C-alpha cells in the first residue's frame, strides 16, 4: 500500500536488515518515511537493500551498525540519525535474540545478552529519542514485544522476562507522555516466518525426520490456532496504523497479532 501519510518523517528501526524489522521498514517507506536501518549483515547486501528501498519508494535511507547490547553504540546511532535527518520521529525497537534452555542450565552470559538487546536497548533508544519528540510535540515509539510479553513458555526465561519488561516499559513511556503528541505502544507477534524461526523449523524437520512443511504445521498447531504464520508485512501495516492520526489515542497498548495464540 503506497501513500504519503508519513512524508517528511524519519523512522529508525532497530534490527531492520531482515525479518520483522525489514518488513516494518518497507511499510514505513511505502508511506513516504525516511528510514534509518540498523542490524547485522554483509555490508554489500545492506547497501543493496538501501538502494532497493530508496528506488522503490522514493525515500532517503541511512544505515548504522550499532551493536544494540552496547549503550555507547546506541548513543552514537541516535546522534547519527539526528545529524542525518534532524530527528527520529518514529522509533521502532525491534532488535532481539533468543536462547532456549531450562533456568538451571541457562548460560549467564546468554541471559545478560538477551536482557541487554531485547530490553535495555529499548530504554536507551527511548530516553535518547524523547527530547526531540517533546520539542516537536509529536512522536511514535513502537516496541516489538511478542506474545511472550503477555504469556510464558518453558525454556524461554530470559526472552519472556525481557518481553514482559518491554510491555511494562511501553506502559510507563505512554503514561509519562500522555498529555503530549507522543504515543508509545507494543506489538506482540506470534509465530512469524523470519530467518530465526525458519532455523527452528529446519531443526524440527531434521530431529523428527519430517518435511519442512510438516515441521511448520507442527510448530504452528502447538500454539497458533489459525495454523498460519503472521507476516512481517502485516506487522508493518499495524505499525503504520499506530503511527497515524487515527491511532493518536492508542496509548500504552500491547497489541497481539498472533493467529489466536493468546485467546486460548
UniProtKB/TrEMBL annotation:
SUPFAM superfamilies: NAD(P)-binding Rossmann-fold domains. GO terms for molecular function: 3-hydroxybutyrate dehydrogenase activity. GO terms for biological process: monocarboxylic acid metabolic process. PANTHER family: 3-OXOACYL-(ACYL-CARRIER-PROTEIN) REDUCTASE, 3-OXOACYL-[ACYL-CARRIER-PROTEIN] REDUCTASE FABG. Belongs to the short-chain dehydrogenases/reductases (SDR) family. This is 3-hydroxybutyrate dehydrogenase. It comes from Noviherbaspirillum cavernae.
Amino acid at each position: 500500500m503506497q501513500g504519503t501519510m508519513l512524508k517528511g518523517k524519519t523512522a529508525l528501526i532497530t534490527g531492520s536488515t531482515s525479518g520483522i524489522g525489514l518488513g516494518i521498514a518497507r511499510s514505513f517507506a511505502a508511506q513516504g518515511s525516511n528510514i534509518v536501518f540498523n542490524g547485522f549483515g554483509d555490508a554489500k547486501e545492506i547497501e543493496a537493500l538501501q538502494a532497493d528501498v530508496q528506488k522503490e519508494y522514493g525515500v532517503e535511507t541511512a544505515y548504522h551498525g550499532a551493536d544494540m547490547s552496547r549503550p555507547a553504540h546506541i548513543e552514537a546511532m541516535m546522534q547519527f540519525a539526528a545529524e542525518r535527518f534532524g530527528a527520529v520521529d518514529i522509533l521502532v525497537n525491534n532488535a532481539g535474540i533468543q536462547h532456549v534452555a531450562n533456568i538451571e542450565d541457562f548460560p549467564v552470559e546468554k541471559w545478560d545478552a538477551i536482557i541487554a538487546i531485547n530490553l535495555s536497548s529499548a530504554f536507551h533508544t527511548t530516553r535518547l529519542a524523547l527530547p526531540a519528540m517533546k520539542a516537536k510535540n509529536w512522536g511514535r515509539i513502537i516496541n516489538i514485544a511478542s506474545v511472550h510479553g503477555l504469556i510464558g513458555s518453558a525454556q524461554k526465561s530470559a526472552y519472556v522476562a525481557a518481553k514482559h519488561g518491554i510491555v511494562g516499559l511501553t506502559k510507563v513511556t505512554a503514561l509519562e507522555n500522555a498529555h503530549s503528541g507522543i504515543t508509545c505502544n507494543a506489538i506482540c507477534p506470534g509465530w512469524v516466518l523470519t530467518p530465526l524461526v525458519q532455523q527452528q523449523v529446519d531443526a524440527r524437520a531434521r530431529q523428527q525426520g519430517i518435511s519442512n512443511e510438516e515441521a511448520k504445521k507442527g510448530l504452528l498447531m502447538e500454539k497458533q490456532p489459525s495454523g498460519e504464520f503472521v507476516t512481517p508485512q502485516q506487522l508493518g501495516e499495524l505499525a503504520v496504523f499506530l503511527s497515524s492520526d487515527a491511532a493518536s489515542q492508542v496509548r500504552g497498548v500491547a497489541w497481539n497479532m498472533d493467529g489466536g495464540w493468546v485467546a486460548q
